[in-house]
Amino acid sequence: MHSRDEIFNEISKAMQELFELDAAQITLEASLYEDLDLDSIDAVDLVVKLQDMTGEKIQPDQFKSVRTVKDIVDSVEQLLQD
């Protein structure tokens, strides 16, 4: 999982499994809170899943500014590069 497309696809699959979202809802521009109706507990579940996927520890402050699916892709991409 290294290209942006691979990262997006993995995140999309995880969100479909965790939150029973339709794949069509999950776009880079989708807002986590308004468009996808996620809450703070969902965000914690997603962070745990991303840690499992990447094998990296994600600091809570890294995720404070995340608002869209693109933000998640950017964060994971940065994490994998470090």
Structural topology:
Blueprint: H1 4-19, H2 40-54, H3 60-63, H4 69-81
Helix pairs in contact: 1-2, 1-4
Protein architecture, described:
The protein is mostly helical and 82 residues long. The chain is 59% helix and 0% strand. The mean pLDDT is 91.
- The whole-angstrom Rg is 11 Å
Shape: globular
Largest sheet: none
State the end-to-end CA separation: 14 Å
Fraction of residues in helix: 55-70%
Instruction: Briefly note the structural class of the backbone.
Output: mainly alpha
In total, how many beta strands? 0
Q: Counting H and I runs of at least 4 residues, what is the number of helices?
A: 4
Mean pLDDT: 91
Give the low-pLDDT segments: none
Helix/strand order:
HHHH
In short, what is this structure?
The chain has 82 residues and is mostly helical. It contains 4 helices and no strands.
Tags for this entry?
0% strand; mainly alpha; 82 residues; single chain
